Amino acid sequence: MEAVLELNGLTKIYANRRGVENITLQVQRGDIYGFFGPNGAGKTTVMKIITGLCRADRGQVRLFGQDAAADFVKAMSRVGVLIETADAYDYMSGYKNLELAARFYPQLPRKRIDEVLELVGLAAFKHEKVSQYSLGMKQRLGVAAAILSEPELLILDEPTNGLDIEGMVEMRELIARLAREQHITFFLSSHLITEMEQLCSRIGILYNGRLIREDFVADIVRGANPTTLENYFMEQVREERRAEVHA
Ligand SMILES: Nc1ncnc2c1ncn2[C@@H]1O[C@H](COP(=O)(O)OP(=O)(O)OP(=O)(O)O)[C@@H](O)[C@H]1O
User: Fold this and answer.
1) Whose Cα sits closest to atom 5 in ligand 1?
2) Are 173 and 197 in a shared domain?
3) How far apart are CA 67 and CA 11, in angstroms?
4) Are strands 66-67 and 79-82 parallel, antiparallel or unpaired?
5) What does the mean pLDDT of the chain come to?
6) Residue 164: partners with Cβ closer than 8 Å, 6 or more residues away
7) How far, in Å, is the centroid of ligand 1 from the Cα of 123?
8) Ligand 1: residues whose CB is within 6 Å?
9) Which pLDDT band holds residue 83 (cuts at 50, 70, 90)?
């Protein structure tokens, strides 16, 4: 097994004393790793640190076995990122938007734009203006931009946030397909536990800025004491609260 992403003791405390503390985890090649936590748990903060949008107070990010800080540009060249909502120019077509994004990758063959549009199911709508797209289509265009450079690891912050049921299902199917057919490893966050149950191979539970548990989803839902991810999460939170009371 190869760890494509490792976080070692990652800590970031904002001036208001919120943030994340001592996050240590590993994402193995082939994982769809769900970084789960309620609103404000610290998921975005961790993702921003990994992708260089925010600086950690302490700790280390390793990408593909190397300290990401040593050669950040090289490490990130193998990573695709979609943090918060996808930003596209509404008055341009999906295709034009991807052409703009492709300028960051001068080596990219032009046919790659059509390839990614096909992969995310937008080929038929590529010449429509993004203003005509549904939110789900805009999110999938964001994924298309993130996979332009054929990344091995895709980091997605709340990829289904704000989507209707159809949009959520389409996004879930897209992620599963990219994992299966393009062999992309995923590190994605969500506060929707049923979504994680349906999609992820492993989950890490973030609560009040700390990683309180990591498990294989199959072990939780089909293991010795099968339960739903929702019950499992509530159990962990209760334990955490009991520990806080006794501390
Ligand atoms: N720039 C900032 N300055 C101060 N506090 C911040 C800042 N960014 C985030 N926080 C706080 O840090 C904590 C973690 O926020 P973060 O956005 O990482 O959580 P999250 O799990 O992604 O939540 P959500 O699902 O709501 O996006 C929250 O309490 C938040 O209010």
Assistant:
1) 14
2) yes
3) 16
4) unpaired
5) 91
6) 135, 136
7) 36
8) 14, 16, 18-19, 37, 39-45, 191
9) confident
230 within a domain of the structure (yes/no): no
pLDDT at 225: 81
What is the Cα–Cα distance from 208 to 56, expressed in whole angstroms?
Answer: 17
Q: Does a structural domain hold residue 227?
A: no
What ipTM did this prediction achieve? 0.94
205 inside domain: yes
- Note whether 69 and 75 are within 8 A (CB): no
User: Per residue in 27-56, pLDDT tens?
Assistant: 999 999 999 988 889 999 999 999 998 999
Residue 24 has pLDDT above 90, yes or no: yes
Backbone angles phi, psi at 106, to 5 degrees: -60, -25
pLDDT tops 70 at residue 86: no
Task: Measure Cα distances from 86 to 32, 34, 181 in Å.
Answer: 20, 19, 23
Residues 140 and 176 in one domain: no
pLDDT band per the 50, 70, 90 thresholds, residue 163: confident
Residues 137 and 69 in one domain: no
In terms of DSSP bridges, do strands 202-207 and 210-216 run parallel, antiparallel, or are they unpaired? antiparallel
From 127, 150, 173, the end of a domain falls on 150
**What confidence tier does 85 reach under pLDDT thresholds 50, 70, 90?**
low
From 150, 177, 196, the end of a domain falls on 150
Tell me what pLDDT residue 152 has: 96
Determine the residue of 18, 47, 82, 160 to mutate for testing ligand 1's pocket, defined as the one with the most ligand atoms within 8 A of the Cβ atom: 18
What are 23's two structure tokens?
């996050």
Domain limits at 65? 1-78+152-216
CB contact at 8 A, 54 and 88 = no
